[in-house]
Each structure stands twice: as structure tokens, then as C-alpha cells.
Design a protein that fits this description.
Layout (H helix, E strand, L loop, with lengths): L1 H16 L6 E2 L5 H5 L3 E7 L4 H18 L7 E7 L4 H6 L7 E6 L2 E6 L5 H11 L34 E2 L5 H6 L3 E6 L4 H16 L5 E6 L4 H6 L7 E5 L5 E3 L6 H11 L5 E2 L2 H9 L3 E6 L6 H11 L6 E5 L2 H6 L8 E7 L8 E5 L7 H13 L5 E3 L5 H5 L6 E7 L4 H18 L5 E2 L10 E9 L4 H8 L9 E5 L4 E3 L12 H13 L5 E2 L3 H47 L17
Parallel strand pairs: 1-3, 2-3, 6-8, 7-8, 11-13, 12-13, 16-19, 17-19
Antiparallel strand pairs: 2-4, 4-5, 7-9, 9-10, 12-14, 14-15, 17-20, 18-19, 20-21, 21-22
GO cellular component, one term: endoplasmic reticulum
GO molecular function: protein disulfide isomerase activity
Protein name: Thioredoxin-domain-containing protein
């Protein structure tokens, strides 16, 4: 009895805690957009399915082996958690777990059946993946034929009006091309202020980009699925499965400039003769050195560039002279170089790819991370337009901030720009603390900035306790952790001299100086409590289904035990009668 109970509890615990391997996760929102291009092998599973848990290590191994294959077309692997997205699995007529199906360009090809051995799985994929896409095939030595005529996609936003979207129309609209979407609530004052400007934006973008809106009071689930936490929230969607929240100024001029930049061609060709002029016109430029922009690697660069929304611009070239000039190693089949400070003499960072026809999943992920980590200029004025991109950048750079009055701005901007150039020379041309070469992915990014103390005075005082004066205050911010440094390693206030700046930056990057907090005691307490509450909420949310299952199983076990030892007592068909009232 005791052994049975313990064994049951152990079994339940193992059953509820085992989780499947996490690969690309598909949801009702992204299933169509992600699978519409390429070959996809998808597992429909449930975390409560014993067969799924037993198969998880093999699925992970299969994913690793498939990602390293040179066979074309490449097979991408993904999963759908049917315990979370039951409606999606039901709509795809999934009858059991695990179910594995192959899709090509969004069209169902065949379901895998039978024994789930590695040999059979590989044989299935090799036989069913189909012929390589034309752009994946190696180039023929013959001269290329004349390019076929390309039919331009139908123009968007033909009427120049704001399009109201719902759960039923959202994905189809996004799939047609770029769209700028406003998530709003009818009672929101800021939303009401933005409404007439949004209509003007739709007119300005007529025939170019869809301008749309979603009423979050009427379509709450849709807004929640896109992580809308406040109103209005403005998100720009590419036809490719990417979206970016707009956090800049909400003036018509700024909105038009943003959409124009975001909807510009993702890749632009540049010749060696044009490169210097292009770099001098832009604070940051990416140069992709590719043999072809139409192959698998070209698609990878294009998809990665789509996430940047035009900041910075990405140019391409097949010039062998440029590869030689910038020292691209022979082992690199393709490369992306970053140029900053309007200087084309040498790149500040380089990404070298090894894939010949199609980038591996690891290279795709690494390229996107690299592009975001190197998109910031070495020096800039912090304004509402670039504040979020700089201070909340994914790679968490150290941001040097000088608070200046208007009469100091020209002088300080020159000093900071010169300091950035000197810092770049000090860091092997990278601008990153600790980096040893342009292709070294390590090191802490650094951005030199200045802020208008009159406009940002309250914020600068509240966050860092500084205000403009004759002695220009300088701090180094780690904004995402709400920490900052205002002294060099010797305890002296940071000044605009390169000696003071560089020693303070290196000490902050090395962790050899103690930072200060931008939060008050009350804010720290509130954040701590909020973090704990969020952790509890996440814990409860993640384990809710497992907990319910656990309770049900325990309930069944208790019921069986009670039935076995309490209710299941044999009844005597001939009960003994009392001796009272006997005649004998």
C-alpha cells in the first residue's frame, strides 16, 4: 500500500515535470507566416504525452543533424504545443501525439508514420524534401540568361485610408505587405490626439504601405497576442515575420520619415567606386559581400535586414576587390561589414559566414544578433527619436552621457565625437571594450552621447543626480539595469578628457568599480516586489496545466484507494439476526 502510493507520486511527478525539447515554436499567430517559405518538418506534441517525452531527445538529435546537412533544400524544424494551442492542432486535424508532418511553402506534403527511428526519419526527409529551389542550386558556368520579367506586387493602401483590423483580417493583411498598425482604446486620450494624424499618415502612404488600427476593447485577445501593454502602441510589420514597435516622436513628419525608411528596399547594390560616398552620407552602414543576393545566403541577409527597418542601411556587392581590400579571409564564403563615423577606410566589425548555399540556423541567429549589436553609431545626441534604440539596445551597451546647455552643445559634440574616434583606435577599431579584432564577437559596446540639459533636466536629475553647469557632468549609464557610474577608478568625477573617460569605461566594463543605482529606495522595493509577483505569476501560469493534471491523478488514486479499502466491503446476504424476540 505505502509502496504503491509512493510509486504513484513519483510517476506523477515525472509525468508532469518532463518537458519536450524546445525548437522553433509555432503559434496560431505565426504558423502561416513562418511556414509559407521553405521546407518545414513540424511536430505536434503535448507535454503530458509519454511518447512525446520519450521522443524528445531523438527530436533534438534530429534537429542538430538536419541543421548540419548540406542537402538542398534545407529542412527547418518546428513544434506546436497542442496543450497551449489546442485550436491550432484541431484546425490541422491532429488526432494523436506526437504527430509529425512535412510542409513545403506552406502546403502540407505528407505525414510521417510508423517507427520513429532516426534512420526512418532521415529517409523520410531525404525522400520528401523535394527538389532544390532554383536559387539554392550552384551557379552554372554558362552565361546567365536574361532575367525574366518580374510582375510588381499590387500596391497597398489604394484608398489612402486607415484600415480597421480584426482577428479575422489581421494576418491576411500583414501577409500582403508592410503595414504600420496602431493598437488603441476608444477611451484613451493620447489615442484620440493621434487619430487625425493617423488619417493624414494613411493619405501620405497611399499606394505604398498599409496604415491600420486595432480596437483593443473589441479585440483584446489580438492585442494581447502582440504584447500590447499601453495605448497607443504603434508596431510596424514586414511581410516577413518581423515586427518592431515605434517609440519615436509622434509628429506627422517623424512618422512619415520612419515609414519611408522602414519600407525602403531591404538591400541596395553598391559598387566599389560608390562605397565611400555612401558611407560618408550615413552614420552606420552595413556592407554584405555576397556572390549572389538571390541565393540562400542572400535570403538570410535579406530577412535579417528586415528586422532593422532601415536602420542602418544594408548594401550588397559581389566585388572581389572589396573582399581583398578589407581582408576578408578565404575561409569566409560571405561577409557582412559594419562602417561607422562616416569612415570607409576600415570596418568597425565583421561577420564571416561559412555556408556556401544556405546559412545554417546557427548562422542566421548569430547574424541577427550581430546586426543589432553593431547598429549604433559611436557618438550621437540622445533625442526622443533614438533614445529607446540606444538606451534599450539588445546588447546593453555602456552609454556615456554628457549633460549640456545649448551654448555648450557644439563644443561638447565635437569633443565626444573625437573621443569616440580615439576610443575606436584604442579598441582595435571595434569601439567595444575588451574586443581584440573586428571579427571578435566579444566586448562591451560603448556609445558616446550628449543630452540637452534644459529639455531633459528633470530626468537627468532624477536618474543620475546631475545638471548642466560650467563643469560639464558626465556619467556612464547601464540603463537596462538602472545602474550608472559617475567616478573614475580613482574616485574622481568623470570629465571630458580621454584619460578620465577611458579609464572609467574600462573599469565599468571590467566590473572593477561599484555602480550607483538610478532607483530610489521606494522604487527598489517596488521593483523587488513586482519581480517576485511576476515570477510567481509566471510559475503559476507555466505549471497550471501540470498542477491540474497532478490534482486529477491524485484524486483518481485516492478514489481507487477509498473504493478498494473502504467502500469495497463484502455484504453478507444472510445477516445474523438478534436473539431478541426468539420463541425458542
Amino acid at each position: 500500500m505505502q509502496f504503491f502510493t509512493i510509486a504513484a507520486f513519483v510517476a506523477v511527478f515525472a509525468f508532469s515535470s518532463a518537458l519536450p525539447v524546445q525548437t522553433e515554436s509555432l503559434t496560431p499567430e505565426n504558423f502561416k507566416l513562418i511556414t509559407e517559405h521553405g521546407v518545414w518538418f513540424i511536430e505536434y506534441f503535448s507535454p503530458y504525452c509519454a511518447h512525446c517525452r520519450a521522443f524528445a531527445p531523438d527530436w533534438e538529435t534530429l534537429g542538430e543533424e538536419v541543421s548540419q546537412e548540406d542537402k538542398l533544400p534545407k529542412v527547418h524544424m518546428a513544434q506546436v504545443d497542442c496543450a497551449v494551442h489546442g485550436d491550432l492542432c484541431e484546425s490541422h486535424d491532429v488526432k494523436g501525439y506526437p504527430t509529425m508532418r512535412l510542409y513545403r511553402d506552406g502546403t502540407f506534403v505528407e505525414q510521417f508514420k510508423g517507427s520513429r527511428s532516426m534512420e526512418r526519419l532521415h529517409a523520410f526527409l531525404n525522400f520528401r524534401r523535394g527538389d532544390p529551389y532554383p536559387e539554392d542550386k550552384p551557379a552554372e558556368p554558362e552565361p546567365a540568361p536574361a532575367p525574366p520579367e518580374v510582375t510588381a506586387p499590387p500596391p497597398l493602401n489604394l484608398d489612402g485610408e486607415v484600415l480597421a483590423l480584426s482577428q479575422d483580417t489581421f494576418l491576411n493583411t500583414i501577409a500582403q505587405g508592410p503595414a504600420f498598425v496602431k493598437f488603441y482604446a476608444p477611451w484613451c486620450a493620447h489615442c484620440k490626439t493621434l487619430a487625425p494624424m493617423w488619417k493624414e499618415l494613411a493619405k501620405a502612404m497611399q499606394g505604398k504601405v498599409t496604415i491600420a488600427e486595432v480596437d483593443c476593447e473589441a479585440h483584446g485577445a489580438l492585442c494581447k497576442s502582440y504584447k500590447v501593454k499601453g495605448y497607443p502602441t504603434l508596431q510596424y510589420f514586414n511581410k516577413i515575420d518581423t515586427r518592431t514597435e515605434y517609440t519615436g516622436a509622434r509628429t506627422l513628419e517623424k512618422l512619415i520619415a520612419f515609414v519611408d525608411q522602414a519600407s525602403a528596399p531591404l538591400l541596395q547594390t553598391v559598387t566599389p567606386e560608390e562605397l565611400d560616398a555612401v558611407v560618408r552620407e550615413n552614420e552606420v552602414v552595413y556592407l554584405a559581400l555576397l556572390h549572389s543576393v538571390d541565393g540562400g545566403v542572400g535570403r538570410t541577409v535579406r530577412r535579417s535586414a528586415a528586422r532593422l527597418l532601415g536602420t542602418p542601411r544594408v548594401y550588397t556587392s559581389s566585388s572581389e576587390a572589396l573582399r581583398t581590400h578589407y581582408g576578408v579571409p578565404h575561409s569566409a564564403k560571405w561577409a557582412v561589414l559594419a562602417f561607422k563615423d562616416r569612415n570607409s577606410r576600415e570596418p568597425t566589425a565583421a561577420f564571416y559566414g561559412t555556408a556556401t548555399s544556405a546559412a545554417t540556423p546557427q548562422e542566421k541567429s548569430a547574424l541577427i544578433e550581430w546586426m543589432f549589436a553593431n547598429r549604433l553609431p559611436l557618438s550621437a545626441e540622445l533625442t526622443p527619436d533614438n533614445f529607446d534604440m540606444v538606451m534599450n539596445a539588445p546588447h546593453s551597451p555602456l552609454v556615456v552621457i554628457a549633460a549640456v546647455d545649448s551654448n555648450q552643445k557644439d563644443r561638447v559634440s565635437t569633443v565626444m565625437s573625437e573621443a569616440a574616434l580615439a576610443w575606436r583606435a584604442r579598441t582595435s577599431g571595434t569601439g567595444r571594450a575588451g574586443a581584440t579584432s573586428v571579427d571578435d564577437p566579444h566586448g562591451r559596446g560603448v556609445v558616446f552621447t550628449w543630452m540637452d540639459a534644459r529639455r531633459w533636466g528633470d530626468w537627468l536629475w532624477r536618474m543620475y543626480g546631475i545638471k548642466a553647469g560650467d563643469d560639464i557632468p558626465v556619467i556612464i549609464a547601464n540603463h537596462q539595469d538602472l545602474l550608472y557610474y559617475n567616478t573614475d577608478p580613482h574616485g574622481s568625477p568623470i570629465t571630458l578628457s580621454t584619460t578620465s573617460l577611458f579609464s572609467a569605461i574600462e573599469a565599468a566594463a571590467d566590473g572593477t568599480t561599484t555602480p550607483r543605482s538610478s532607483q530610489s529606495s521606494i522604487e527598489k522595493l517596488a521593483k523587488s516586489l513586482n519581480d517576485k509577483l511576476m515570477a510567481i505569476e509566471d510559475f503559476v501560469t507555466e505549471l497550471f496545466k501540470s498542477t491540474i493534471f497532478y490534482i486529477v491523478v491524485v484524486g483518481v488514486i485516492l478514489f481507487l484507494l477509498i473504493k478498494r479499502y473502504v467502500l469495497d466491503v463484502p455484504v453478507d446476504p444472510y445477516p445474523m439476526r438478534s436473539k431478541e424476540g426468539r420463541i425458542d
